[in-house]
Design goal:
With about 400 residues, the chain is an alpha/beta fold. Helices cover about 45% and strands about 15% of the residues. Helix 3 links the parallel strand 5 and strand 6. The longest helix has 17 residues. Bound molecules: 2'-deoxy-thymidine-beta-L-rhamnose. 2'-deoxy-thymidine-beta-L-rhamnose (TRH) binds next to helix 1, helix 9 and helix 10.
Length: about 400
């Protein structure tokens, strides 16, 4: 019987769309390698998508080591080396049949973990960690659910994340960080942000009701500066407003700044430096929670409006750390931003949201404590797998 924690990990990621699948897989891979001394291979089917998050990646390399992780191509018909101790099937995208055959032929069967999507729904507690042996081979397979409530796998958080975030925000509060912010904007070719402006980072899917948001900001009492990362939303705004390739546009009290899509390691800084963060999908949504600034989630749409159930489930648990009135205001804006039928108009939800930013920041400090109590996803996963290996 072996009790040593599993050291060799294979993570298989098929990019369905956008950046979330690889965003989570890459973050997990790095953390397992850096903080748990694991030998990690990340198998990914779309290297250019990983490259957007990590510019060091060579899209033409068959095998490469990047930030302590071996990155390899995930291809259906390819040959695979002997499997690792733990195999992560990211978001249930599936494993290549040739690799499964190798797993089945191994003397010591690897652990197969299906890493699921994050959800705050209560059923997660009953399904998290359950065994579900692979029907064709009988290989041991388990479902693992990230989550924000006890009984789930928690969310990803690097060991030094909060110290880095707190150091950045402390210098901001003391005024010293102004230089960092100035440098951030000037490195991207922009003037400094006016001192009285509310800054937004705006990462959302193109179908978000951005016109309503912009119109509320244009007419608002305070100047607003919105940083919009290049991508489908920026393209949709440019096209609809006939902005051509302009990088900066002033309209009423709103200034739009189109900023480059930054490497994943830099994205946190944008969140920390913004007064309000609009985020989407899964990974940016989690990073906004750790950033601790008021945020608005544009959830990934699913068939039959399944995402609305997920959205409301999160709002229910998140609302517990907010005063009742602020919880109502946050819910209203999030439902409006997600186009939920019968949501109040964004025009009225937005100023109310702005007015309770302080209460939201306080609530987010409590939220952070709650998330910390869950441990972090990579550490929890390591612990879970070590336990299973010890039982073998
Ligand atoms: O890109 P997303 O919408 O990704 C996904 C996928 O669509 C997936 O199929 C879906 O199931 C899932 O959402 C729920 O959103 P997400 O998860 O926030 O991923 C974005 C990643 O991009 C995240 O790791 C942060 C990173 N990022 C940068 O590195 N630089 C940037 O400038 C920005 C804006 C984001």
């Amino acid at each position: 019987m072996s009790t040593a924690p599993p050291r060799r990990w294979d993570i298989f990621c098929r990019v369905i769309d956008n950046y979330g699948d690889i965003g989570v897989s890459w973050r997990l891979a790095r953390q397992l390698a850096h903080e748990h001394g694991a030998a990690v291979r990340l198998w990914v089917d779309q290297l250019p998508v990983l490259r957007a998050l990590c510019p060091e990646v060579d899209v033409n390399a068959a095998v490469q080591s990047v930030q302590g992780v071996r990155v390899l191509p995930y291809a259906e018909g390819a040959d695979y080396p002997p499997p690792a101790d733990v195999v992560i099937d990211a978001f249930g995208g599936g494993l290549p049949p040739a690799y499964i055959a190798q797993m089945a032929a191994s003397a010591v069967k690897p652990l197969w973990i299906v890493l699921e999507y994050l959800s705050a729904e209560s059923w997660v507690r009953e399904h998290h960690g359950l065994p579900s042996p692979h029907p064709q081979t009988g290989l041991p397979r388990y479902f693992y659910f990230p989550g924000v409530a006890p009984g789930s796998g928690g969310v990803l958080r690097e060991a030094d994340l909060l110290a880095r975030r707190d150091a950045f925000c402390a210098t901001e509060d003391a005024g010293a960080g102004v230089n960092d912010l100035r440098a951030w904007w000037s490195a991207r070719g922009f003037d400094d942000v006016p001192a009285d402006a509310i800054t937004l980072s705006l990462f959302a899917y193109p179908h978000a009701p951005w016109r309503e948001l912009f119109s509320a900001c244009e007419q608002g009492a305070s100047p607003v500066v919105a940083a919009i990362p290049e991508g489908p939303l920026a393209a949709a705004i440019r096209e609809a407003c006939r902005l051509g390739q302009s990088r900066r546009v002033q309209t009423g009290n709103l200034e739009l700044r189109f900023v480059p899509f930054v490497p994943q390691l830099d994205y946190d800084t944008l969140l920390w430096a913004s007064d309000i963060n609009f985020v989407r999908g899964e990974d940016s949504f989690v990073r906004a929670q750790w950033a601790g600034q008021p945020f608005v989630w544009h959830i990934y749409s699913q068939a039959e409006a399944a995402h609305e159930v997920k959205l409301r489930a999160f709002l229910d648990v998140f609302g517990e750390v907010l005063p009742a009135d602020s919880a109502r205001v946050v819910r209203n804006l999030w439902l409006a931003w997600n186009g939920v039928a019968a949501a109040p108009p964004l025009a009225s939800a937005w100023p109310e949201f702005l007015a309770c930013r302080q209460a939201q920041r306080q609530g987010l400090r409590l939220w952070r404590e709650k998330l910390l109590e869950l441990g972090d996803l990579a550490g929890n996963l390591q612990h879970f797998c070590s336990g299973l290996v010890a039982k073998k």
